Amino acid sequence: MSLGLRIIENFERLPEKFVKNFEALATANIGDVMGRLRSMDYTIKSMNKLGVHLVGNAITIRVHPTDNVMVYKAIELAQPGDVLVIDAFGGHENALVGELICTYAKLKGISGIVNSTPIRDSLAIYNMDFPVFARGATPRGPLKEGSGEINTIISCGNVPVCPGDIIVGDDDGIVVIPKEDAEDVLKQTKLVIQKEQQIMKEMQDKGTWKNKMIDEILERKGLSNKN
Fold first, then answer.
1. What is the dihedral of CA 66, 72, 77, 82, to 10 degrees?
2. What's the CA dihedral at 151, 157, 159, 162 to 10 degrees?
3. Most buried residue, 20, 69, 96, 208, by CB count within 10 Å?
4. How far does Cα 196 stand from its chain's mean position?
5. Contacts of 83 (CB under 8 A, 6+ apart)
6. pLDDT in the model for residue 224
């Protein structure tokens, strides 16, 4: 197939057992470990009830802003536990995902969908036990011409996404973990959580909290945070 109309069926996925390690981790902690550079744009938010959590290997889709044929094809190719990540070149006029696609994806065992456009059928998706992240909702549906790419490098929410990267989503939004860095990110995130838990404990025990980093910053600027 030619550039702009191609489907790559096989790519390296990280083992499901390893990916599941991220299920208990918050996107905020993961994002901190990656220098705040791998968190998607704040406009891509959960379309479900509060308490959603999404984890899985990315299967990437690049389409025109009004066309969702390749989304259906990607669902056919996806394996259980995959997350569909859709790049529609910043389009925000048409919904590429609705109740039918979400139901089909859920039946296939897909973990969820991250979509750079709006959705439609928002009430049904809100009540569905299937994580969907998108830029709001619109009644305007998609067209079906068929061009696009599956499992190439894309950009979604201003973050690059490669097939097989780990996608983690919660009520704060989406982070993308490059698959080659996933083991180190997991280790560092657990350390960050342990540190924050210790700070919370000290705060509760002492009824206050002294942030030494803030003191150091203010001192370098010739200010004082001692009062």
1. 80
2. -10
3. 96
4. 23
5. 54, 55, 56, 57, 58, 59, 110, 111, 112, 113, 114, 167
6. 67
For the stretch 10-35, pLDDT in tens is 999 999 999 999 999 999 999 999 99
What does 71-136 look like in DSSP terms, one character per residue?
HHHHHHHPPTTEEEEEE-TT--SS--B-HHHHHHHHHTT--EEEESS-BS-HHHHHTSSS-EEES-
Residue 160, class by beta-carbon neighbours within 10 Å (0-12 exposed, 13-18 middle, 19+ buried)? Answer: middle
pTM of the model: 0.91
Q: What is the C-alpha to C-alpha distance for residues 220 and 215, in angstroms, rounded to an integer? A: 9
Query: CA–CA distance from 29 to each of 14, 49, 192, 201 (Å)?
Result: 21, 21, 7, 18
Residue type, 109: G
Nearest to 68 by CA among 53, 84, 57: 84
Q: CA-CA distance, 176 to 147, in Å (whole number)?
A: 25
Q: What is the pLDDT at residue 225?
A: 54
Instruction: For the chain, list residues with pLDDT below 70.
Output: 1, 224-227
